[in-house]
Each structure stands twice: as structure tokens, then as C-alpha cells.
């Protein structure tokens, strides 16, 4: 079934990388016939169920909705990419099922669910995300995108990086998931590819949303939006807020370089339990990432290198880190 696609992979190739091929019946058994009690997530793509594989491995089984060619393309893309991309910052693909019309993906189980749910569901879970946990999540995500953009040849553009696609393990360490919309980038440095605009409103880089021109800098913009979510606990688009505050980036950008305004933006659930110096530095990183002009956005390597000393200093309680690209702020910001 995989022949002829530019993102195709033969089942044997997937198996050779440790990815198993499951029958539909095996996954029915693993999930107790996809019972509601095992339902752990819902989305536009389909439902996710907790499952116990034959060898006792706890897994997350994603049942994809049948969506014609686009759904088939997303399935092939995810199997192909995750069969050959291995990083501690990406959710592991354990296997897949392509039985008749059934399309399922089997992933490692991430017990703490999505970053989105912890931040935005008013069920008290956001209190579990203190300042240190949020910064470690930010660094884990930055490392994931650095791996895709700069340690993979050719580069991979995630194209749907958002808080619902960031999963948390038992220690609240983050891994990036959902590669159904991912694109292989150009071999050229900062190479641009043209593609149909897909993704999620509020996270889309302006140049991609308006022209379909996609680069790794499109992911950098989306990362900046997630960083703003971590800082403010606001969703990217919220029409219930007062005029001028509907779009998170538009509201946040003029405030990110104003020390007093930045402190007022911070999620009240943090109760001021953070270093002011660290906050200014993280806000500067976010401001760079969501620049309107793609060329002004940093590489993810720069983001990683700027976050490492901040995270390392969390345990010592001191903050001596410097921001590597603070002098490259766009004059248009």
C-alpha cells in the first residue's frame, strides 16, 4: 500500500527500524475493543486510546479518521518519518496497522497528556506546571525542533507545532508528536518550499499563512507562540477577551520588551515564583521567534543555546545566562 508516495515506506523497511506492523484484531485486543474507558484523547485526526500490547507495553493507539487522500497522506508521512527519526524529544512510534480500511498508529504512552490540557483546562492542572517545569518543557521542545531542522538531512518542517502536539511523560518532560502534516524541507540553507496552507490558526507564521511559502522559520514562529502560552497561560486566539487581546502574538509582542508589562503578562498561577532576570530573557526569546519577518527569527540552535544556561541555573537559584541574539530585534517590532 505504500508504493508511489514521495513519503512512502515499505512495511519491511519500517520493521527493520523496530517499528512493528499490527493487525487490527491485535489492537482491538490491546484496547479492549476501543472501549470508552480507554479513550485518552480526541482530535480532528481521530481518537487516541490507551492500550496494553501483548508484551505488556503500555501504548497510545491513534485511530485515524478516514479522510480520503489527505488522511492517507498524513498516515504515510507519519509512518515514514517516525520510522527513521529517533530522538528523545520526539514521541516514539512503536508500530502501525494498515488492515484493509483501518489506519492506526501505535505510540509510546505519555501519562501526563498534552501541554495544552495542563495549561488551558480549568481543572487545577496548571498548578503542576511551575516555572522550572515550564522552562524545561520549553527547552525539550526547542531541542525537538532543533533535531528536525538542523540534525536531519534534509530538514523536516513539523508544520503543526502547537501545545496539543506536545506530550508530557511521568516527569513532565516534553516530547513532540503528530507528524501527519510534516514536510521535508529544501536541501538549501533557509530553503523555501511552496505548499498548501495547513495547520492551526494562531500558530501559523504570517508569511506561510498568506503565501504558502514554508521554511523551518515557520516552525520557529509556532514555537514562539507556544512559549507565549507557557508564559501567559493564554490560548493563541481567544475572541472572548477584550478588543486588542484576541490574538496572543499581537497583544504580547509590544509588551515583551517592556520589563513592567512582561511581569503583568505572566500567568497568575505562577504567583511570582520566578526569576525576573530569567523572565526577561525568555520573553526576549519569544519576541524573536514571533517576529513578522521570517529572517529576523532565530535558528532553533540559537534558542536551545540560550535556554540551556537558564534551565541549568534553575537548581542553583542564580541567573547569569546571556541572550545570544537579543541585538537582532527587528526594527519593525
Automatic annotation (TrEMBL):
Keywords for the protein's UniProt record, in alphabetical order: ATP-binding, Kinase, Nucleotide-binding, Serine/threonine-protein kinase, Transferase
Segments forming domain Protein kinase: 34-311
UniProt GO molecular function: ATP binding; protein serine/threonine kinase activity
Pfam families referenced in this protein's UniProt entry, alphabetically: Pkinase
Residues that, per the record, bind ATP: 62
Record-linked SUPFAM superfamilies: Protein kinase-like (PK-like)
Signal peptide: none
Family note: Belongs to the protein kinase superfamily.
Cross-referenced PANTHER family: OS01G0750732 PROTEIN, SERINE_THREONINE-PROTEIN KINASE PBL7-RELATED
Protein's recorded name: Protein kinase domain-containing protein
Source organism: Mikania micrantha (bitter vine)
Amino acid at each position: 500500500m505504500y508504493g508511489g508516495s514521495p513519503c512512502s515506506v515499505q512495511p519491511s523497511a519500517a520493521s527493520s527500524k523496530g517499528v512493528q506492523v499490527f493487525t487490527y484484531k491485535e489492537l482491538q485486543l490491546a484496547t479492549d475493543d476501543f472501549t470508552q474507558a480507554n479513550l485518552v484523547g480526541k482530535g480532528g485526526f481521530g481518537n487516541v486510546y490507551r492500550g496494553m500490547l501483548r508484551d505488556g507495553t503500555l501504548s497510545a493507539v491513534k485511530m485515524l479518521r478516514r479522510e480520503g487522500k489527505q488522511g492517507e497522506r498524513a498516515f504515510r508521512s507519519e509512518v515514514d518519518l517516525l520510522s527513521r527519526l529517533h530522538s528523545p524529544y520526539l514521541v516514539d512510534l512503536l508500530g502501525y496497522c494498515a488492515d484493509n480500511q483501518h489506519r492506526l498508529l501505535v505510540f509510546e504512552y505519555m501519562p501526563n497528556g498534552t501541554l495544552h490540557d495542563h495549561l488551558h483546562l480549568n481543572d487545577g492542572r496548571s498548578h503542576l506546571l511551575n516555572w522550572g517545569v515550564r522552562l524545561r518543557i520549553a527547552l525539550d521542545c526547542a531541542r525537538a525542533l532543533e533535531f528536525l531542522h538542523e540534525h536531519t538531512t534534509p530538514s523536516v518542517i513539523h508544520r503543526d507545532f502547537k501545545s496539543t502536539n506536545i506530550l508530557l511523560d511521568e516527569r513532565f518532560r516534553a516530547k513532540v508528536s503528530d507528524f501527519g502534516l510534516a514536510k521535508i524541507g529544501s536541501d538549501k540553507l533557509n530553503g523555501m518550499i511552496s505548499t498548501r496552507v495547513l495547520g492551526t490558526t494562531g500558530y501559523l507564521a504570517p508569511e506561510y499563512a498568506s503565501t504558502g511559502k514554508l521554511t523551518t522559520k515557520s516552525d520557529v514562529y509556532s514555537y514562539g507562540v507556544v512559549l507565549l502560552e507557557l508564559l501567559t497561560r493564554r490560548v493563541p486566539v481567544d475572541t472572548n477577551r477584550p478588543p486588542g487581546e484576541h490574538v496572543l502574538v499581537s497583544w504580547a509582542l509590544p509588551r515583551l520588551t517592556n520589563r513592567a508589562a512582561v511581569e503583568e503578562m505572566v500567568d497568575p498561577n505562577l504567583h511570582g515564583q520566578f526569576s525576573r532576570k530569567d523572565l526577561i530573557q525568555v520573553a526576549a526569546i519569544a519576541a524573536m521567534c514571533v517576529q513578522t519577518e521570517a529572517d529576523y527569527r532565530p535558528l532553533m540552535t540559537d534558542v536551545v543555546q540560550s535556554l540551556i544556561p537558564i534551565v541549568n541555573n534553575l537548581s542553583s537559584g542564580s541567573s547569569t545566562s546571556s541572550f545570544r541574539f537579543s541585538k537582532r530585534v527587528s526594527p519593525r517590532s
